[in-house]
Specification:
mainly alpha; 13 helices; disordered C terminus
Length: 335
């Protein structure tokens, strides 16, 4: 593309659009139609320049012009409770459902790794000795030891808030750092699975695996599922950089990135529930079967939410991305 020729051919249209925008409140019907037409054409011109002959100054001017025109055509939109309902009822579960081919294998592989590491730690005293001194290990694993008192070491409300904050940060890091080809996500996953494996291995080595599972499963099922969803989504975001599919890399990354941001908000709510269970149910005096039962019910409810409600929304075309009117203009790149 000869940028000078292109600018000479279309400058009059851009100037005319700018003039119409300056007096948009006093336009008649024909001028309003002209504004819409010029907005669409200018957005196409911007797309062409960005893809063929990017010029920072011209791109900046046209981006500002298109943004002003889009605001004039579409109007200013404010978030409402309808948006919250749509997000929780359609957007978030659909986004999680669409990512299932990433987070389900992530969950299965990570769980298998944690079990194998736990078995290795639990059956090899020499490995246990590298974790802590024998006296410290006894203090960790004895009845009434640190593993058991950890969940009741602080008031339930503050403990739940602390757990929620830590887990939400871990999930957000998985989602955000996925853009670095997913490598930081794998490290975060490994750390989480190693921590789980250490508790699994040490408690099983002294015949108290049932106690460990009774403490972990009530909140851990939902908590780990949220972490796996975040990790799978982060890995998917990283893979988008490698293989964007039929979309341009910029478009693919923008779409998946916006969905990931929405996922972070939704997973924060899921982790709030798991944090509440960990703060109030796990250390409670309820029988083990009741505490585990509450965890299983919470997990099944989330899976039904994703695979039933989210699956239905995804099949109807919901992606978890912003609505059409909320996205940046994307028009055919034809002059």
């Amino acid at each position: 593309m000869d940028l000078d020729v292109f600018v000479s051919a279309h400058r009059a249209e851009w100037d005319r659009l700018d003039a119409l925008l300056r007096r948009q409140r006093r336009l008649d019907g024909a001028e309003a139609d002209e504004l819409v037409s010029l907005y669409q054409r200018t957005a196409t011109h911007l797309s062409l320049i960005q893809s063929s002959a990017p010029d920072p100054q011209l791109t900046g001017r046209l981006s500002q012009l298109v943004a002003r025109a889009r605001s004039a055509v579409a109007g200013t939109r404010r978030a409402s409770w309808r948006d919250v309902t749509r997000f929780l009822g359609r957007g978030f579960p659909a986004a999680v459902y669409r990512s299932r081919r990433w987070w389900v294998p992530t969950a299965l592989i990570s769980t298998a790794v944690a079990i194998l590491l736990g078995w290795w730690i639990g059956t090899h005293p020499d490995v246990q000795s590298t974790i802590a001194a024998p006296g410290q290990l006894r203090e960790l694993t004895r009845p009434g030891g640190e593993y058991e008192t950890y969940y009741s070491s602080h008031p339930a409300a503050s403990f739940a808030a602390q757990v929620w904050t830590n887990n939400a940060q871990a999930a957000a890091m998985c989602l955000v750092l996925g853009v670095f080809l997913g490598l930081p996500v794998l490290w975060i996953l490994l750390e989480n699975m190693l921590n789980l494996a250490v508790g699994f291995g040490l408690m099983s080595s002294v015949g108290r695996l049932d106690t460990f599972l009774g403490l972990v499963l009530p909140h851990g099922l939902l908590e780990l599922t949220a972490v796996f969803v975040a990790a799978g989504t982060g890995l998917r975001l990283g893979w988008t950089l490698i293989d964007p599919g039929p979309r341009s890399r910029r478009t693919a990354l923008a779409e998946e990135g916006r969905a990931a941001v929405g996922m972070a908000i939704g997973l924060a709510l899921v982790l709030f529930v798991s944090g509440a269970i960990e703060g109030f149910v796990t250390p409670s005096g309820l029988p083990t079967w009741a505490r585990i039962g509450i965890g299983i019910v919470a997990e099944l409810a989330f899976l039904a939410y994703v695979f039933v409600l989210g699956g239905r929304a995804a099949r109807a075309g919901e992606t978890g991305d912003l609505g059409e009117t909320e996205r940046s203009a994307s028009l055919p790149t034809a002059a």
